[in-house]
Design brief:
Layout: H1 2-11, H2 21-31, H3 41-65, H4 67-72, H5 80-83, H6 88-109, H7 111-130, H8 137-157, E1 165-166, E2 169-170, H9 177-198, H10 202-208, H11 213-217, H12 219-243, H13 248-268, H14 273-300, H15 302-311
Antiparallel strand pairs: 1-2
Helix pairs in contact: 2-3, 2-8, 2-14, 3-6, 3-7, 6-7, 7-8, 8-9, 9-12, 9-14, 12-13, 13-14
């Protein structure tokens, strides 16, 4: 049984959940700020199930529709479907069951999440088809992952309110603008991230007629776009922190995240697979977890924020 779990986890790269999940947790905590960032076990558990279901469905769909390209690409020929480790029928059932898990979790959360769950499934799965007709496939991936913080916010709030009033005054930090700004940051982050990752397949994509900004503009120009995208992402996180009125812990995290982004691009310039893997997987995992930790510090421990802010 453990081997089966490992096989299917490897099939969908379950460890990559670390990219979107921390942003969803951070968004959920900010939405539940009135209760120190904790929406309750039921809501938190359903958000986690929805995240796992959506991401697993999207990755399984990607592996299914790209199986022929994967088989011809030396970098991806060892994946489960090309090697026959996983059957096509099994992959389809796994994909459908994962999508069903998202819908079921959304049904348990609130009506708004249930109504939006088909749109979420379309968004996360459609990305896998975009490389066939648009150079902006990276933007679609960003939109797919941006659904995580927006969905987590809606799971807690259950409604959309852009200008909420707290104690008779408008509080932008509690409105729907907050998850939208965070979602924009995720889009920009993924655009830069996916461009760096796509440089590995530049020659293959060019030969196969697949689309990306790397194919359209060349590796050097595309990497410049990725760098600018990550700078704008960092600036958007600064806006997010300002809307939420975060203080010292968050800004320390922003300095660390900026340093990690710069390091990522220095490493990625080498363009060898080992360097790309370090830049893509490890550093970005640290970035997302760092963001989550400093956000939780600000929300869960307001005494920490206030005490240090007053001293500052």
């Amino acid at each position: 049984m453990l081997r089966e779990v490992a096989k299917w986890g490897g099939f969908v790269k379950f460890s990559h959940t670390v990219f979107a999940l921390p942003f969803a947790i951070a968004s959920m905590a900010v939405a539940a700020r009135g209760t120190r960032g904790w929406p309750g076990w039921r809501t938190a558990g359903l958000v986690l199930l929805a995240m796992v279901g959506a991401r697993t469905c999207a990755m399984a769909f990607n592996r299914i529709v790209d199986r022929k390209f994967d088989a011809r690409n030396p970098r991806t020929a060892g994946r489960h479907l090309p090697r026959g480790v996983v059957s096509l029928a099994g992959a389809v059932v796994f994909c459908a069951a994962s999508g069903g898990l998202l819908v079921l979790a959304a049904w348990g959360l609130n009506p708004l999440c249930l109504w939006l769950s088909p749109a979420a499934l379309f968004l996360v799965c459609f990305y896998s088809l975009t490389k066939r007709f648009t150079d902006f496939t990276h933007v679609w991936l960003g939109l797919a992952l941006a659904a995580a913080p927006v969905g987590a916010w809606l799971a807690v709030k259950g409604s959309v309110e852009f200008l909420p009033r707290v104690d008779g005054r408008i509080d932008m930090g509690q409105g729907a603008m907050v998850p939208m700004v965070l979602g924009l940051a995720v889009v920009l982050w993924l655009v830069g991230l996916d461009i760096l990752y796509a440089t590995q397949d530049y020659e293959f994509d060019l030969r196969e007629g697949l689309h990306s900004l790397v194919v359209r503009w060349g590796v050097r120009n595309a990497m410049a776009v990725a760098f600018l995208s990550h700078l704008f992402m960092w600036g958007t996180l600064v806006v997010f922190g300002g809307l939420c009125r975060f203080r010292l812990a968050y800004w320390i995290g922003m300095v660390l995240i900026l340093a990690l982004l710069l390091l990522e691009h220095l490493i990625a310039r080498r363009r060898d697979p080992a360097a790309i893997n370090v830049a893509f997987f490890k550093l970005n995992g640290v970035i997302s977890v760092t963001f989550m930790v400093v956000t939780l510090l600000e929300v869960v421990f307001p005494w920490f924020r206030l005490r240090w802010a007053e001293g500052w």
